Amino acid sequence: MSPLISYLESKIFRSTMIDCEKILAIADRELSGTDLFTVSCKCSPMNEVELLIDSDTHVTIERCVELSRKIEAEFNRDEEDYQLTVASAGIGEPLRLVRQYQKLVGESIEVLLKSGVKILATLDEVSDEAITISYDEAVVVEGKKKKQMQRTTHTYAYDEIKWTKEYLDYK
């Protein structure tokens, strides 16, 4: 058997699935007391780990690198072979946490309801159970032939929402 095959087999058999919970715990500990927070951690069967973080203000690449190094320092590369990517939750990505919603109060968002209705709105309020949004809607007004635009405010529970994204107007 060739040395390369022997090496690859030892890596395959020695490799264990990396624990996302452990990575999240380390990240949460390292980010505690800052305006940064974890959004999600995904681990593939090939031990490719993607840790997404966000901030109440902004996330710098330097902060991602620093967090990546601190996490890597907690693992033994001889025992666990993995690829770690620490990145900022991107603009255009669905919001996952109430804290992400809170930082967008007063901003434009795009909401896709589970019913299939897509709404471009302003995020007015956020709670642990629901969001309140306002948007212009064409409504029938008695005595008028054409529908009139009217500002509508509606509250949607999170379980009614398929996804919400920050809306960027490129005009």
Low-confidence stretches: 6-15
Please work out how many helical segments DSSP would assign.
4
Spatial gap, N to C terminus: 62 Å
The SSE order reads: HHEEHEHEEEEE
In total, the number of strands is 8
Global mean pLDDT: 88
What's the oligomerization state? single chain
Query: Strand arrangement, largest sheet?
Result: 7-6-5-4-8
Largest sheet: 5 strands, antiparallel
Query: Rg, please?
Result: 22 Å
Structural class assignment: alpha+beta
Net shape: elongated
**Fraction in helix:** 10-25%
Beta-strand percent range: 35-45%
Question: Would you give an account of this structure?
Answer:
By secondary structure, the protein is an alpha+beta fold. Helices cover 24% and strands 37% of the residues. It is built from 4 helices and 8 strands. The relative contact order is 0.13. The model is unreliable at 6-15 (pLDDT under 50).
